[in-house]
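Data card: per-record layout.
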Amino acid sequence: MTAYLQAIGIIALIYALLALGLNLQFGLTRLVNFGVVAFFAIGAYTSALLALSGVPLILSFAAAGLLAGISALPLGLLSLRLREDYLAIVTLGFSEAVRITIQQEEWLTKGVQGLPGIPKVFASLGPAASDTALFFILLVVTALVAWGTVRLTRSPLGRLLRAIGDDEPALMALGKNPTKFKVQIFMVGAVLAGLAGAFYAHFITFISPEQFVPLVTFYVWMGLIMGGSGTVRGALGGAVLLMVFLEGSRFIKDFIPGVSEVQMSSVRLAAVGLALILVTMYRPNGLFGKSTS
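The structure for this 293-residue chain is written out next.
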């Protein structure tokens, strides 16, 4: 039971990193990124491939975040020319292009066979101790990112980013140029997604293209919306809430007779979807956001 809860905690923290990155992009500057999973996959494969080649983990993690951030630069530049809905379509298409590329380039990624044997963090400690170490490292990293995000939002730069999201034309009329700030914040969010992907790869120790489908992106969006976009507590609380729904819904089968395991996956998605609808109706700013009443 302890190992199970620890695994859930690790996945929740990975989703928290993804949500914090998306919160910077959408919660502050209203950049609609439907390609979160693409940067997640880039980070996972970059760190896994380098680690399997003998590169020290600290360097493979750094490379994962760096490559994810660099790959976000073209999309960040596109965000300057595209409206929110078109940017959403482009980023979604980018995520599928990344997944298909991973699937087709078998010489590098092993394609659909996946990459097995990815080393764990502190593997010499043994499986249980290694996961415990990973959990605490993730906890520290997530706490540092959350602290940095809070500092950012309270700084003049954070107020400028919020102004970009609230009314960009008015900001430009005041003589401010939001161009470089939108690109930079898009890249920072991608770096966090790449770092989350590296943590995921070294926790699961096996990755394949089927693990990086658009559903991962929409899970992150669900968590952020339920928690409340634009706030750190919303991103963190939403990630935890998402895990509660996804894992808690596994036990619905005990109360619904005649439901197969295949059907159960649909029931789980329906439960999360219903929760999202109710939150949108009664808490439009999220469960951890500011109340509208």
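Known properties of this structure: The mean pLDDT is 88. Residues 2-213 form one domain.

See the next section for split statistics.
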